[in-house]
Amino acid sequence: MNTLDAVFHALGDNTRRAVIARLGGGPASVKELAEPFPMALPSFMKHIAILENSGLITSEKQGRVRTCRLREENFALAEQWFDAQRDLWESRTDRLADFVENQLMKGKNRDG
């Protein structure tokens, strides 16, 4: 799986998106991140592993506490992909609007 695929896979789950949203407020321990979710810690750790493998977060362990934080680089990859898609579709809709406008003008000129 390439990096962009891993990013979208990671963001395709509500729990992982909630973790990302929480980390937007700053680093947090795994325990803090897991508290809102009704699941066992081993299950939650699978979400953390997917987020780490995607490169969206990083974690470091100090003593018994593992702290997670966002890594912004791979968010830029997703943003660039969305920007490219937006540019493509805006270009297509602009061309469609020009085509429709030209057809309307031709119809008006023909009808007098």
Secondary-structure topology with pairs:
Blueprint: H1 3-11, H2 14-23, E1 28-29, H3 30-34, H4 41-54, E2 57-62, E3 65-70, H5 73-111
Antiparallel strand pairs: 1-3, 2-3
Helix pairs in contact: 1-4, 1-5
Rg, Å, rounded? 23 Å
The secondary-structure class comes to alpha+beta
Q: What is the CATH level 1 assignment of one domain?
A: Mainly Alpha
Strands across the major sheet, in which order? 1-3-2
Characterize the quaternary organization of these chains. single chain
Protein name: Regulatory protein, ArsR
InterPro entries: ArsR-like_HTH, HTH_ArsR_DNA-bd_dom, WH-like_DNA-bd_sf, WH_DNA-bd_sf
GO molecular function, one term: DNA-binding transcription factor activity
Pfam family, one: HTH_20
Structure description:
There is one protein chain. By secondary structure, the chain is an alpha+beta fold. The chain has a domain of 72 residues: Winged helix-like DNA-binding domain superfamily/Winged helix DNA-binding domain (Arc Repressor Mutant, subunit A, Orthogonal Bundle). β2 and β3 form a beta hairpin. α1 packs antiparallel against α4.
Top keywords for this entry?
12% strand; Arc Repressor Mutant, subunit A; alpha+beta; DNA-binding transcription factor activity; single chain; 69% helix; HTH_ArsR_DNA-bd_dom; 112 residues; rod-shaped; WH-like_DNA-bd_sf; 5 helices
Short structural description:
The chain has helices spanning 3-11, 14-23, 30-34, 41-54, 73-111, and strands at 28-29, 57-62, 65-70.
